[in-house]
């Protein structure tokens, strides 16, 4: 059987890059906007498995996915890359506005970063409670950028976190082998990392990486 993470990776269509020239062409044709949307939608799928616990995070991701998707649908070649979207909004002076697509990109990247931190902790700390690991992942990725309203909502969500074993079973899905699952986690992290680095580089360049919410 397959774990939820393996299903996510196969959906991301990134598990089997071609070799040599074929891979280079593929990289050029790949759309970082589509990559981010695809990863974010898979994250929503995983959050759905956990249930209503992280509803705050789920709603946030859903809204940002929709905003970015709507823009991309208007002109998929013009908005194929995240860099193009950010540069346009920076030049228009709208990048820091509440409903900008730049903000959507920032928060989607942060949510994915939170998830990556959480998955890595799951693998490295087999004895820690899920609540503790969610809290640590939250503190190091999302909390620095949250105002008191968002922080309060997360504190409520933390109280509803399921047991570690239940969470892992949900993520494992039909996969019966913990070692296979651990391998899936590491592969998924290695797939998502370059996208996060690309987004961070764009944001740092335009001094947008420290934007906060309410």
UniProtKB/TrEMBL annotation:
Gene3D superfamilies: Glycolipid transfer protein. GO terms for cellular component: cytosol; membrane. Residues 33-172 form the Glycolipid transfer protein domain. One of its GO terms (molecular function) is ceramide 1-phosphate transfer activity. Pfam families: GLTP. This is Glycolipid transfer protein domain-containing protein. It comes from Aegilops tauschii subsp. strangulata (Goatgrass).
């Amino acid at each position: 059987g397959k774990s939820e993470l393996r299903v996510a990776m196969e959906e991301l269509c990134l598990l089997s890059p071609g070799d040599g020239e074929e891979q280079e062409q593929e990289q050029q044709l790949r759309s970082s906007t589509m990559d981010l949307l695809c990863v974010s939608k898979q994250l929503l799928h995983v959050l759905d498995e956990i249930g209503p616990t992280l509803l705050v995070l789920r709603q946030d991701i859903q809204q940002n996915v929709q905003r970015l998707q709507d823009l991309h649908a208007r002109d998929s070649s013009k908005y194929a890359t995240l860099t193009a979207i950010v540069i346009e909004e920076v030049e228009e002076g709208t990048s820091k506005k509440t409903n900008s697509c730049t903000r959507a990109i920032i928060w989607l990247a942060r949510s994915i970063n939170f998830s990556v931190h959480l998955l890595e902790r799951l693998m490295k700390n087999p004895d820690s409670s899920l609540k503790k690991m969610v809290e640590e992942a939250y503190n190091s990725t999302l909390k620095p950028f949250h105002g008191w309203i968002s922080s309060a909502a997360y504190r409520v969500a933390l109280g509803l976190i399921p047991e570690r074993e239940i969470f892992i079973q949900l993520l494992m899905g039909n996969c019966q082998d913990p070692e296979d699952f651990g391998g899936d986690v590491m592969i998924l992290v290695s797939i998502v990392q370059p996208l996060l680095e690309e987004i961070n580089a764009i944001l740092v360049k335009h001094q947008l990486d420290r934007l906060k919410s309410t």
